[in-house]
Structures are given as structure tokens and as C-alpha cells.
Write a structure and sequence with these properties.
Number of helices: 15
Strand content: 15-25%
Distance between the termini: 61 Å
Number of strands: 17
Largest sheet: 5 strands, mixed, barrel
Radius of gyration: 22 Å
Structural class: alpha/beta
Shape: globular
CATH class of the largest domain: Alpha Beta
CATH superfamily of the largest domain: tm_1862 like domain
CATH topology of the largest domain: pyruvate-formate lyase- activating enzyme
Helix content: 25-40%
Strand order of the largest sheet: 13-14-15-17-16
Number of domains: 3
């Protein structure tokens, strides 16, 4: 089949996982549109289906596999994302009609559709895989743009499969990142998500080594009205640039928000996980950040039921959360991931105990979140409208600390910057009104 016929094929891109995957999916759709491929809206309409997969958790892996098995074999299927990197044999065995596109070769999607050869190896050079974002024209949300600044990380956490998928840190040049950000801002984007597996190690692979605050400073110097959300970073790495980061967080273009995953409050479990920070370090870090950054919101991640987790270990996690009181806590029940050190560890925690601990933590963190949110009632300041709500005349905004604010006002529009007052709070969000 020649390329002219291929161009008539409608393509559906199904995307799952993190904000980096979202960036890749947007790049794929943009490339397809630039090459005149119709973008399908449903499986039934599509002739080609591209599935951008995620496997960070076991239940997500099962979901991806079930999806691939459920898609009609009459469709041309392409599997990309994390699954084919570590489970290609499963794809060959279970969905033999599927083609594989490694995520770092995603910019070669047109060659694959034209049945030309595509790289089957990891591309170390970020200037190659970042070509996917050249002349980016598609966005799931025209106001929000995730910008992938690097891939991989320098940690070696015992439970994590992402390192196996993404490899060591490979940072894009500042020039490449700034060029993309300028482009999307000129196209109307108002909210930039800086994303990576660990944004805190951006530039550590450069000679001489660079640090994240230098990039942030360059981003905030770009003209225009926009906000920047910093992505997840390992708490231990902040000790190398804490003061410089604080300086940038106090810039009005940066959301006063940090995602700092601690994973456990037990130093014993943190050591077994091969995490480099201690619970006391985390507590002191958050305390100092809050003292120097006004209205700073902290998000963190917790894994319950890691192999060997005792009642005392779990109690230490509860104590840490009660002391730090992070407004946002992402709780995951531990599951073995193939090829990780933790998968071989014992004793395993029974599923019933993991579920019980997860419920207990969820109840605790729900109270912490609700209490934190109530403190925002009466707050006045700027918010950006970045989503349309589920109800009629309802909009979703983010205040300067990246907290979700629900506003009912039929005169609002996406991308609008407005002055608001917080009038109430829900379980995970604030309720606000536009100041006249």
C-alpha cells in the first residue's frame, strides 16, 4: 500500500499515564495532522489505533493488556509508551498483529505507517526524540501544555520500573525547551507543565552540570502572561539548589506548588527502598520551604505495604503525614514490578493488610486535606481558568498555589486570568467567586 493510500487512513491515539506521556501523545497527533492523516474520535471510526501505554503500577499494566486484547484485530494496531520497552515478548505473543513503536522513536510514526524501517533501539540524544515536539500543533487542552524537559533519572529505587523503561537522565538543551515554550505561548497556552521522571535532576548530565533553577529563570524571562507548574522532584536532590529554587518559586509566574514524593515515614523502609532521604530530612525540608515561600502547597506520594513493612513502619508513615500535613497525598498499594529489586524481596505484605492500611491512610489524609482547604476560605488573589466544569456555567481554575477552584460564572472563558475570593471548600477543591 503506497503512502497516498496510507494518508487516507484515520488514526486514533489512545493515551494513558503521566504528563510526559501526554506530551508524547500530543506530539504524535500533531505529527499525524501535519502529514494529513485524519484523526479519529473512536475505535469504530479508526483504521489505525495507536496506544500510548503506561505500566508504572500493576493494575495499570493489567488495564493496558486488557485494552490491547479487546481491540478488534481488523484494526491496524501500534503499541508505544512504556509497555513495549519491558514487555515486548508479551505483545509478540498476545497481540501478534500489533506493531511496536518505542517511545524514543515516536517521531518516526509516519515512517512506520508507510511501512518504512524504524529505529529499534533507545535513542540517547534528546535532540532526536524531542523532534516530536517540533511545530507542535495539537493539545488536549489549548490552555495547558506539558513540556518534557528530560527523560530518565539518577535514582535507583528498588520498587520502580520507570528507570528500566526510561534509563539514565538525558536532558534537553535549554534552547530547545525555551523555543518550544515560546511557540506554545504564542499559540495561546497559559499553563506550562514542566515534566520529567525527576525534574530535580535536569541538567545533571551536562558538562558543566546545570541545575533546574537556571532553566526556570530562563522560562520566567519569556514575555507573556502564563504560569509554570514544576513537576515531581526527588526531595534529596533539593539540597543542591534549595535556595535558588526558593528564589524562583517566589516568581509570580511559578505556581507555589511542589510535588515531593517521600514514599514512607519509616527510615528503615526508605533504606530498603533505596531512597536517599530520611524522614527527618523531609520534615525539615518542607518546614524550611514553607517558611520562605508564601502559601506553598506540598504534594507527596506514599507507598503502603512495601515488603517487610511492619506495624511500626506504618505508624511512622502516619506520624510523618500528621506532622507535615501535605495538602495532596497520592497513596499507592505496593505491587511487584517485573525486573525490580523489590519484586524479589520478602516478606510480602498480604493484600488484606495493604488494603486496610491504604484505607486508614486515605481516611487520615482526607481529614488533613479538608482541614488545609478550609484555611483558604477568605483568600483573595489571581486564578487562571484552565478547564470547563461538569455543570452548566461552571469553570475550573487554579489559584497561584495550583489549588483547584470551582467557579460558577457564565461569563468566564478558558485561559482567562481573574481576581477571585475563596468562599467555601470541598473535600479536594476550593469554591470561589470572581471579584467584580
Amino acid at each position: 500500500m503506497n503512502s497516498t493510500e496510507n494518508r487516507n487512513k484515520s488514526v486514533l491515539v489512545l493515551n494513558y499515564g503521566c504528563s510526559a506521556n501526554r506530551a508524547i501523545a500530543e506530539g504524535l497527533i500533531g505529527t499525524l495532522k501535519n502529514n494529513l492523516y485524519p484523526i479519529a474520535e473512536s475505535v469504530e471510526e479508526a483504521e489505525v489505533i495507536i496506544v500510548n501505554t503506561c505500566i508504572v503500577k500493576q493494575n495499570t499494566e493489567h488495564r493496558m493488556k486488557s485494552l490491547l486484547l479487546s481491540l478488534p484485530q481488523s484494526k491496524n494496531l501500534i503499541v508505544t509508551g512504556c509497555l513495549p520497552v519491558v514487555m515486548r515478548n508479551w505483545i509478540i505473543r498476545s497481540v501478534p498483529h500489533a506493531k511496536v513503536l518505542l517511545p524514543e522513536s515516536a517521531n518516526q510514526i509516519i515512517e512506520l505507517l508507510n511501512k518504512e524501517s524504524v529505529n529499534e533501539y533507545k535513542i540517547v540524544d534528546p535532540s532526536v526524540w524531542s523532534q516530536l515536539y517540533t511545530d507542535r500543533i495539537h493539545y488536549y487542552n489549548p490552555i495547558i501544555t506539558p513540556i518534557e524537559i528530560s527523560r530518565g533519572c539518577l535514582s535507583n529505587c528498588a520498587y520502580c520500573i520507570v528507570k528500566k523503561v526510561k534509563g539514565k537522565i538525558r536532558s534537553r538543551s535549554q534552547e530547545s525547551i525555551l523555543s518550544e515554550i515560546r511557540s506554545v505561548i504564542n499559540k495561546g497556552s497559559k499553563e506550562i507543565w514542566i515534566t520529567s521522571q525527576d525534574t530535580g535532576t535536569y541538567g545533571w548530565d551536562f558538562t558543566p552540570k546545570q541545575f533546574l533553577p537556571s532553566l526556570i529563570k530562563s522560562i520566567t524571562s519569556i514575555e507573556g502572561k502564563f504560569f509554570v507548574r514544576l513537576g515531581m522532584m526527588t526531595p534529596n536532590n533539593l539540597k543542591y539548589f534549595r535556595s535558588e529554587l526558593i528564589s524562583q518559586l517566589n516568581n509570580k509566574k511559578i505556581f507555589n506548588f511542589l510535588h515531593l514524593p517521600i514514599q514512607s515515614g519509616s527510615d528503615s523502609i526508605l533504606h530498603t527502598m533505596r531512597r536517599k532521604e530520611s524522614s527527618n530530612y523531609f520534615i525539615e525540608l518542607v518546614s524550611s520551604l514553607r517558611q520562605e515561600v508564601k502559601e506553598l502547597v506540598i504534594a507527596t506520594d506514599i507507598i503502603v505495604g512495601f515488603p517487610g513493612e511492619t506495624i511500626a513502619d506504618f505508624s511512622a508513615t502516619k506520624k510523618l503525614l500528621q506532622q507535615v500535613k501535605p495538602l495532596i497525598v497520592n497513596i499507592s498499594k505496593y505491587t511487584d514490578r517485573p525486573g525490580t529489586t523489590a519484586a524479589k524481596m520478602s516478606p510480602k505484605i498480604p493484600t488484606k493488610i495493604k488494603s486496610s492500611r491504604s484505607r486508614e491512610l486515605s481516611k487520615l489524609t482526607k481529614k488533613i486535606t479538608e482541614t488545609n482547604l478550609k484555611k483558604w476560605i477568605g483568600w483573595k488573589g489571581t486564578a487562571i481558568i484552565d478547564e470547563i466544569g461538569k455543570k452548566h456555567d461552571q469553570f475550573i481554575g487554579r489559584n497561584t498555589s495550583y489549588l483547584t477552584v470551582v467557579i460558577e460564572d457564565k461569563l468566564l472563558s478558558l485561559g482567562q486570568l481573574i481576581e477571585i475570593e475563596i468562599t467555601d471548600s470541598g473535600s479536594t477543591y476550593l469554591i470561589g467567586e470572581k471579584n467584580n
